[in-house]
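Summary of Year 1 activities. Much of the first year was spent building the evaluation harness for sequence design. The harness presents a backbone, in tokenized form, and records the residue chosen at every position. We chose the following record to illustrate the format because it has been used consistently in internal testing since the harness was completed.
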């Protein structure tokens, strides 16, 4: 809670329900904002300053009534202003005015390196927080720079907001990114970096990129490296997702194998079961593939580990089963016990590989698990 503020929401909640609901806040699309294209821009909140007051400050700048500062800009143009106002709005300008040469009542200062019109928009903002949408679009980069150089936080926030909400594009993003880092706009640097990553191929072929490579080679390298890193992470995510799908399919195959050997399914099942070919509808997705694999395994002449590719697959499934099987005494899956004994003679390397596979397969079903399989933690 902020000291000195009243939590209105909380206050209203605690009041009797017969108290009328307060009227809504003034609409964001009132006359003033429409005229100045401010929409939902921050820092220009509703209701604090009336439209008339803002217009008065705006007029004071435009008319220059009793101005006492001459600001020299590029191309020989000048802007008239009031020392008390611009000095109060920016501590940097206050310092400049203190050291400025005086000619009678006039202080003279210079703001150069940006277009004259950008300086005019900047000074007008210091008076009234007013600006035209078109001017913001045109001079956003200059205003960003000026807001930093002359320490005007509200303009800084406004520029950031406009860039984030539409003015940042593939044409200015590289410049914005560099400016954001140089002028301490952390949020903007993250947003522009994200955009560069997204359009890296297109942007790395532009002149702006070549210029950045020349002026800030370390920065260019850092961005390129982060793109490579991001690409590797993306590939890794895809690989993990694919692995997860395979583990999940193996888990389902393990369930189906137990079900076929215990209950029988469609055309195959345990020999002692009263087996009817028109068996009830099966709920195990994996049965279909497993059924044909078991049929092949039963009839294949090469039925040895390392033999035909289908038999090899079947052996792997049987071995995996014996490793996840919770009770070989109750189990009806062929060779379950034999394979359990065989694994005791396995090399350490094979053992580690299998253990990892078992852990991943059992872990692929996060909820529940099966009473026929070992709990995942024991693997
Ligand atoms: Zn089935
Ligand atoms: Zn075979
Ligand atoms: Zn078993």
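For this record, the design step produced the sequence shown next.
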């Amino acid at each position: 809670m902020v000291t000195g503020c009243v939590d209105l929401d909380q206050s209203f909640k605690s009041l009797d329900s017969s108290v009328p609901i307060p009227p809504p806040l003034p609409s964001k699309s009132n006359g003033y904002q429409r005229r100045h294209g401010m929409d939902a821009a921050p820092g220009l909140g509703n209701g604090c300053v009336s439209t008339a007051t803002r217009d008065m400050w705006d007029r004071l700048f435009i008319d220059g009534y009793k101005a006492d500062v001459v600001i020299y800009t590029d191309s020989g143009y000048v802007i008239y202003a009031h020392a008390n106002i611009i000095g109060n709005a920016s501590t940097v300008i206050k310092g400049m005015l203190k050291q400025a040469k005086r000619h009678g009542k006039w202080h003279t200062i210079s703001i150069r390196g940006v277009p004259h019109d950008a300086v005019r928009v900047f000074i007008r903002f210091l008076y009234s927080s007013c600006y035209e949408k078109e001017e913001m679009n045109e001079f956003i980069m200059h205003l960003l720079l000026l807001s930093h150089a002359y320490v005007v936080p509200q303009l800084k926030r406004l520029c950031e907001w406009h860039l984030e909400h539409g003015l940042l594009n593939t044409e200015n993003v590289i410049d914005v990114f560099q400016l954001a880092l140089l002028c301490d706009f952390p949020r903007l640097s993250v947003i522009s970096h994200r955009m560069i990553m997204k359009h890296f191929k297109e942007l790395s072929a532009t002149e702006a990129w070549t210029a950045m490579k020349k002026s800030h080679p370390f920065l260019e390298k850092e961005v390129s490296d982060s793109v490579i890193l991001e690409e590797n992470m993306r590939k890794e995510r895809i690989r993990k997702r694919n692995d997860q799908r395979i583990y999940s399919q193996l888990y389902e195959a393990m369930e189906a194998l137990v079900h076929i050997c215990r209950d029988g399914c469609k055309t195959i099942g345990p020999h002692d079961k009263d087996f009817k070919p028109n068996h009830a509808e099966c709920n195990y997705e994996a049965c279909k593939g497993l059924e044909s694999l078991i049929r092949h395994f039963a009839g294949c002449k090469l039925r040895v580990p390392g033999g035909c590719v289908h038999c090899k697959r079947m052996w792997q499934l049987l071995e995996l089963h014996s490793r996840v099987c919770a009770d070989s005494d109750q189990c009806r899956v062929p060779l379950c016990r034999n394979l359990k004994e065989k694994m005791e003679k396995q090399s350490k390397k094979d053992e580690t590989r299998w253990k990892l596979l078992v852990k991943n397969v059992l872990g692929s079903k996060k909820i529940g698990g099966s009473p026929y399989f070992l709990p995942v933690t024991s693997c």
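DSSP finds 17 helices and four strands in the chain. Quantitative recovery figures across the full test set are reported in Table 2.
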